[in-house]
Amino acid sequence: METVLYIVHVLVCLGLLPVILLQSGKGGGVSAVFGGGGAGTVFGSRGASNFLTRLTSIAAVVFMCTSLGLSWYSSRSRSVVGDVAPAPPPASTEQLQQAAPPDQAAAPGTATTAQ
After folding, report:
1. Of 3, 24, 62, 99, which is most buried with the most CB atoms under 10 A?
2. How do residues 7-25 score in pLDDT, each as one tens digit?
3. Is 30 within the bounds of a domain?
4. pTM over 0.70
5. Could you list the residue range(s) of the whole structural domain that residue 71 is in?
6. Looking at the 3D structure of the chain, how many domains does it have?
7. Residue 115 resides in a domain
8. Is residue 92 assigned to a domain?
9. Residue 106 resides in a domain
């Protein structure tokens, strides 16, 4: 089910791009500020919604539903971080000196005792 939601979500995202880009603006814009010809239609009635506007609304609702569904699925799944084993505690200097070969046991720059 989660895979189906992913597929629908991606398809709706890819479908929204051209549908939004194909729509024309509502008119007005910068020309309305300076008294252009579109100034009368800025605050007027929009008229009936055309096909692209309805398609955008439907796609937006489907996008929101798939987003909510995917977030619900992700909240129910286990975290990837929980599967990682905890890191071992850091080794002490005594353990490091015991693990080092005898000729490198002493730290550089310190005096060593004669054997």
Report:
1. 62
2. 999 999 999 999 888 887 7
3. no
4. no
5. 1-10+52-77
6. 1
7. no
8. no
9. no
At which residue do the structure tokens 């055309």 appear?
Answer: 50
pLDDT tens for 61-108 read 999 999 999 999 888 877 666 666 777 777 677 766 676 666 655 555
- Of 86 and 5, which is predicted with more confidence? 5
d(Cα 56, Cα 20) in Å, to the nearest integer?
A: 7
Question: What residues have CB less than 8 Å from 19, skipping those under 6 apart?
Answer: 52, 55, 56, 59
Own/partner long-range contacts of 66-71 (Cβ < 8 Å, ≥24 apart):
66/5, 66/8, 66/9, 66/12, 67/9, 69/5, 70/2, 70/5, 70/6, 70/9
Tokens of 58: 């439907």
